[in-house]
């Protein structure tokens, strides 16, 4: 039963959209660091906080923004889609958020293992530090993953607002266009 649900999950568009989109969002700061040779990012560098402790890095703003989508948000969507398919129901309320939490924590665990294996190899980035995250940051990753279960809701809300705004702008343009044509037609008839 679960193998069929897994196979169905990886065939859904929503799964790939969140996984690939989240991975791209996660990769952008890493690629910028590799290209510039600096840990500080051009825009998010203005929001850098002092290094609070070995558990909270100086790039906490970037970490919150990025981890909301990958691995936490992507895992949350994967968990929701997988369990919806496995049980054959649309998850709502507590079930939906527990499914998202399970997926987010599972995917964060897999990503943390990848980060740990990379960190142990001590591969240096262009800025001189380790290319992978330090193990002291892993608890923060799990805390952010537990909060990322709300990311799909926030993204859905923003999408609905943008679509509504675009629809409203389309209606306004249409009304203006119709009004201009009506004025133009009455002007030509009166000549």
Please explain how this structure is put together:
The chain is 71% helix and 0% strand. With 191 residues, the protein is mainly α. It has one domain (2-155). Helix 4 (72-87) crosses helix 5 (93-121). The longest helix has 40 residues, at 151-190. The protein is globular. The mean pLDDT is 88.
Fraction of residues in H or I helices: over 70%
Strand content: under 5%
Gap between N and C termini: 76 Å
Largest sheet geometry: none
Query: Structural class of the secondary structure composition?
Result: mainly alpha
The mean pLDDT is: 88
What is the total tally of β strands? 0
Number of individual domains: 1
In short:
With 191 residues, the protein is mainly alpha-helical. 71% of the residues lie in helices and 0% in strands. The protein has helices spanning 2-9, 13-36, 60-67, 72-87, 93-121, 138-147, 151-190.
Task: Draw up the topology in text.
Layout: H1 2-9, H2 13-36, H3 60-67, H4 72-87, H5 93-121, H6 138-147, H7 151-190
Helix pairs in contact: 1-4, 2-4, 4-5, 4-6, 5-6
Essential attributes:
single chain, about 190 residues, mainly alpha
């Amino acid at each position: 039963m679960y193998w069929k649900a897994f196979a169905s999950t990886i065939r859904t568009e929503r799964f790939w959209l969140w996984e690939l989109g989240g991975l791209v969002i996660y990769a952008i700061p890493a690629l910028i660091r590799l290209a510039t040779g600096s840990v500080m990012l051009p825009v998010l560098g203005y929001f850098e906080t002092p290094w609070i402790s070995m558990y909270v890095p100086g790039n906490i703003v970037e970490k919150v923004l990025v981890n909301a989508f990958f691995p936490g948000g992507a895992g949350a969507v994967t968990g929701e889609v997988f369990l919806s398919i496995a049980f054959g129901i649309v998850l709502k309320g507590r079930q939906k958020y527990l499914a998202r939490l399970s997926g987010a924590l599972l995917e964060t665990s897999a990503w943390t293992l990848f980060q740990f294996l990379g960190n142990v190899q001590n591969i240096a980035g262009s800025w001189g530090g380790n290319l992978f995250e330090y193990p002291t940051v892993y608890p923060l990753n799990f805390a952010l993953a537990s909060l990322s279960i709300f990311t799909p809701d926030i993204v859905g809300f923003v999408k609905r607002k943008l679509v509504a705004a675009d629809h409203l702008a389309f209606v306004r343009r249409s009304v203006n266009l119709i009004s201009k044509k009506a004025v133009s037609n009455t002007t030509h008839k009166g000549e």
